[in-house]
Amino acid sequence: MKTLIISLLSLTLLNTHLFADDGEINTDTARAYEAHLVTFMWPEGQSSEQINYKNVLSTGNLLRLTKGEEDKLSTTSSTSGSTPFGNIEERLGRHVKILANQQWTLIFNHPGDTISKTFHSEQEKDGYPELTGSISVKLGRYLESDIRYQHYLFDSFTQPNTQGQSGKGSFFSQGRNTLDTQPEFKEFDPALVLALNQRNKTASKKVNYLDHPTIGTLLYFEPIELEDAMDKIALLSMMTETGKSLNYDELQSTNELSLK
Questions:
Q1: Cα–Cα distance for residue pair 103/229, rounded to 1 Å
Q2: 247 pLDDT more than 90
Q3: Nearest to 229 by CA among 15, 9, 11
Q4: pLDDT at 41 over 50
Q5: How many other CB atoms are found less than 10 A from the CB of residue 83?
Q6: Alpha-carbon distance 109 to 29, whole Å?
Q7: Under DSSP, is residue 240 helix (H, G, I), strand (E, B) or coil?
Q8: pLDDT higher than 60, residue 78
Q9: How far apart are CA 223 and CA 180, in angstroms?
Q10: What is the pTM of this model?
Q11: pLDDT > 90? residue 198
Q12: Residue 172 carries which DSSP code?
């Protein structure tokens, strides 16, 4: 079964970097985990510490997505109830604003390998996510994580309708065009940004809370069987190639059917 799955991965994931290296998976040394990351924002007034955001000097290099791109790139998935993060949005979302709820299947081929992922929040303003981030996880004696966030505050502005209209009924307006200043639509631009870097070492099956006055983080790693991890990644990759999105529970059902 392992040989079949490895062959399937080689065929379907030829140009996709899903593991810590691009070589063949070493079943003797490889380790697999389900990684869970929940990022949330504390309500205002929960901390007396002053957090300084910096001005965004240019929006040229910031992530901006259309709806189609958001659906294609999103890695957010519902979390299985068998982990401490089960139903986390329902339980935690009553008290804080959840910015990202991420889950990944990670396969480390050798100790010392590092896997990196990027993510962003679903809350969008004119295509800009409120939060973008990246996480790098290294397999050592512990699982070492390096998380980098950029949290944005937005400025709003209105775009006036500049279509000219001829004035009527007034000597001063006759023969002139006047601008209709009624707002046509409203946009948002990222104006301020908080760059945050958090590092952590943890054993698996232990929920970690990374504290910050504004942005809170919950991190959890669940060890899983290597064969199950390879099967999940292969199935998810095939669904991505066909343009069909699956949440975690649907992926689990598909995985069970494929093993019967």
A1: 13
A2: no
A3: 9
A4: yes
A5: 16
A6: 6
A7: helix
A8: no
A9: 62
A10: 0.72
A11: yes
A12: T
Among 61, 211, 65, smallest CA distance to 125 is for: 65
Q: Are 157 and 113 in contact (CB under 8 A)?
A: no
Q: Which of 6, 12, 8 is nearest to 26 (CA)?
A: 6
Q: Which residue has the tokens 């799955």?
A: 5
User: 23: closest CA among 110, 105, 104?
Assistant: 110
Please, are residues 81 and 103 in contact by the beta-carbon 8 Å criterion? no
Q: Look at 5-19, 84-98, 116-130, 228-242 and tell me which has the smallest mean pLDDT.
A: 5-19
The set of residues, in sequence order, having a beta carbon less than 8 Å from that of 50 and lying 6+ positions away, is: none
Our CA dihedral for 72, 75, 80, 85, rounded to 10 degrees, sits at -150
Torsion angle of the four alpha carbons 197, 201, 206, 207, in this order, in degrees rounded to the nearest 10: -10
- Which residues are CB-neighbours of 191 under 8 A, at least 6 positions away? 55, 56, 152, 153, 154, 155
- How remote is the C-alpha of 234 from its chain's centroid? 20
**Angle between helix 226-241 and 2-12 (nearest 10):** 30
Residues 6+ apart with CB under 8 A from 245: 71, 74, 239
